[in-house]
Amino acid sequence: MNTNKFSPTRNFSGNLTDNNEEPYPSLSDYHDYEPNLEFDDSELHQSPDIVVQTAELIQMESNGINSPIPDFTDDNFEEELADPSEENLDSLVYSPSYPEVDDSPTRKFSEIDKHKIVDVKGDDNAGRKIIVVYAHRLPPIAEINHSLFLNYLTHTLDQYVEQDYSLVYFHYGLSSKNKPSLRWLVQAYKAFDRKYKKNLKALFLVHPTGFLKFVSQIFRPLISAKFGKKINYINTLKELNEHISLEKLDIPQEVIEHDRKLGGSVTPTTDGSFQPASPLQQFGVTLQFIKDNYNVVIPPVVKQCVEYLDQPDALETEGIFRRSANTLKIRQLKEAANQGETLTFADAHEAAVLLKTFLRELKEPLLTYELYDEIIQFQTWEKDQQLRQVSILVMEKLPVDNYQILKYIISFLSRVMERADLNKMNAQNLAVVFGPNLVWSEVESMSLVAIGPINMFTQFLLLHCNAIFMI
What we know:
alpha/beta; five-stranded mixed β-sheet; single chain
């Protein structure tokens, strides 16, 4: 090894090892070992050079030495790059302007949440929750506490890791000014242990640059072949649209413009110009449209899904509403529903995903845009007034047809809760699944600050459904 480089290796416990006498550090040195972790520990011994390289880079950064990693960033923004030495997080301290915060998640993470770095975007075509991360919204490193940001990420994911989910990372906008250090990336990878990786079904890395691919190579020995299959490099929005409908992502204009510069040809449209393909369409339309054309209050697709799921075998399916289904089959079921056909399900997960998809694709959420602001204030209501205020909101402020559909769905979910010992879906788990599919904002994307109250409101509906709906 070049003598100008850091020669000894160092394991995560901080102990130096002699390269000639001791074996290269295994994963156990880097992580509290668990037998079921999605890592291939043996690969570390087969690829020692990369492990040593990673250890060297981490050690160099911790010693304040400039990392030899080249700043692979978007070519159009090279003039904005800062000196790489600014990336040393050991010198990072809170700005005096940072306010003191309490321990509640909403207040504690408010300084992170205001940047809108992380969004929750409902469900993808397979019924999986979509978590989106935007690199261009990361502030300069001196203006953000990266340790708190890591806690924010894990707290957000903690609400969804028990169900199948997809993660979309938009790499555009990462520069030396806002790029976390390699040491932080390793810490982040360690923090996202097996419980986060197990139900992550797809990781989309959009607009990757040389830096992102370089880091991926560094981490390759730590990533199992199984997890590696979940990683998808996406070069354009058109390519991403093949996996996730762009309309669901509400992609920022800056990312769209960057995609155009890269030769992309797809621009998401959210101008409300969509027209139903037929009078029998049920997905992506209003409840009034369905009522006018089917002459019923409860949409047929909702009724068919609930009737199928209301059978003992389906109700007792473990992980119902948390597992995804075959994307092609869901697409076929949607097409059949949009033609007014009777649906045939192969299993409970297909019906569960279709029900969630229907709710999320409504032109207006079941709980309406108008009630959104009140619902996200739920946690500020006095506890002894919550039942009264929720009852007023649902029974008096919600349109009559919406009330009837909500009552129908919540009544069914109460029966799902009765089998929670078998299906593992209690009120909290169901609220996490259904909350973001029942209400969302018309003007802003979902955030951690909004998700908490929405889920708590939904959980309250489920726990007090008898009193609220007079069931």
